Amino acid sequence: MSRANRIGKELARQRAALVRAELARREARNRRTAVYGSSLGVVLLAIVLSIVVTGAIQPSGAPSAPTKTVADTSGGITSADGMAIPIGDSGAPVKVTVYEDVRCSDCGAFESQYQSAYKALVKAGTVQVLVHLVDLIDNSDGGSGSLAGGNAMACAQNAGYFEAYHDLLFAHQPASESTDTFSSTSTLIGYAKQVSGLDSPTFESCVKSGKYDGWIKQNYRDLEQVVGVANAATPTLMANGTKLTLSTPAAFTTQMQQLAAKASAAASAPASGTAAASSTASPPASPSTAPTSSASASASSSPSAS
Q1: How many Cβ atoms from other residues are within 10 Å of residue 185's Cβ?
Q2: HEC assignment per residue over the chain
Q3: Of the candidates 76, 80, 233, 288, which lies 20 to 30 Å from 69 by C-alpha distance?
Q4: Are 168 and 194 in contact (CB under 8 A)?
Q5: 73-243 belongs to which homologous superfamily?
Q6: Structural contact between residues 132 and 65, judged by C-beta atoms closer than 8 angstroms
Q7: How far apart are CA 210 and CA 185, in angstroms?
Q8: How far apart are CA 101 and CA 103, in angstroms?
Q9: How far is it, in rounded angstroms, from Cα 140 to Cα 136?
């Protein structure tokens, strides 16, 4: 074999070796890409699932609340912000928390029997009522009237007509909770026409959109947190943080007046003690014997109000 032939064959073997090495590198690279791609896919899928699950468990933020709502720190939810619609002066010594459902027949009975009493106390500056609208009957019996009716009341709050519209809907509450009249937005808008100045394109749009559904549902979750899921019922009432058991409107009025007197005495006692200490140079006086009972103590010792 000539020298030229030997050189040619050697070059051919080298080229073949280079080709085999390149093919091996490509095959290894492809395997790595497939493995990495598969792993990356698994990681991305895990991330996506984590986001979805977390979003389902955790709320995306505070629900939209109607205007001029307030935090109800005496109603059992100390961290709540803007969850109650207030009726009355914020400076009233007694805060009466009311969780109610527009479909609830017991709530209708409460409004029918006690409305005059609590409104007189509101007018006198004794009580501020903090209303939490919930969708309990929707959850227990089905339907959507609790949510739709509550949302319409929240829309009326925006327009400055909450109290009038609230009273009107309770006055026209169906005789049976199974009659879901308030699920109809056209019915709710029709009632608004009976409140002078309420009905407007803005109000109608608010009612139809269910703008405050999330706020009502959060109020229901708050009720469950305050009294326990098994004990969630409407109406649930509290006065300065103590749950009320109602008996008669007269007893309710008496109890609220007693709570107001206790709250006023407790608020003035420290100031009186300071004034007495600063107005004399005599040795420190004995501890004050002024009444210091809390609202909760008076609620348990006074006649039940219902």
Answers
A1: 18
A2: CCHHHHHHHHHHHHHHHHHHHHHHHHHHHHHHHHHHHHHHHHHHHHHHHHHHHHHHHCCCCCCCCCCCCECCHHHCCCCCCCCEEEECCCCCCEEEEEEECCCCHHHHHHHHHHHHHHHHHHHCCCEEEEEEECCHHHHHHCCCHHHHHHHHHHHHHHHCCHHHHHHHHHHCCCCCCCCCHHHCHHHHHHHHCCCCCCCCHHHHHHHHHCCCHHHHHHHHHHHHHHHCHHHCCCCEEEECCEECCCCCHHHHHHHHHHHHHHHHHHHHHHHHHHHHHHCCCCCCCCCCCCCCCCHHHHHHHCCCCC
A3: 233
A4: yes
A5: Glutaredoxin (3.40.30.10)
A6: no
A7: 9
A8: 5
A9: 6
Residue whose entry in the numeric block shows the structure tokens 């609220």: 256
Using only C-alpha atoms, the chain has a radius of gyration, in whole angstroms, of 34
Dist CA 80 CA 297 (whole Å):
25
How far is it, in rounded angstroms, from Cα 230 to Cα 147?
21
**pTM for the predicted model, two decimal places:** 0.70
Tell me the per-residue pLDDT of 283-304, one tens digit each, with 9 for 90 and over.
444 333 333 333 333 333 333 3
* Residue 177 backbone phi and psi in degrees, to 5: -65, -25
pLDDT, one tens digit per residue, over 146-204 is: 999 999 999 999 999 999 999 999 999 999 999 999 999 999 999 999 999 999 999 99
**Rounded to an integer, what distance in angstroms lies between the CA atom of residue 291 and that of residue 108?**
37
Taking only the tens place, the pLDDT of each residue in 57-99 is: 334 567 899 999 999 988 877 666 789 999 999 999 999 999 9
Distance CA 50, CA 33 (A): 25
| Distance (Å, whole) CA 133 – CA 122 | 19
Closest CA to 224 of 286, 135, 293: 135
Alpha carbon of residue 268 to chain centroid: 34
Both tokens of 135, joined, read 């969708």
At residue 154, what is the residue type?
A: A
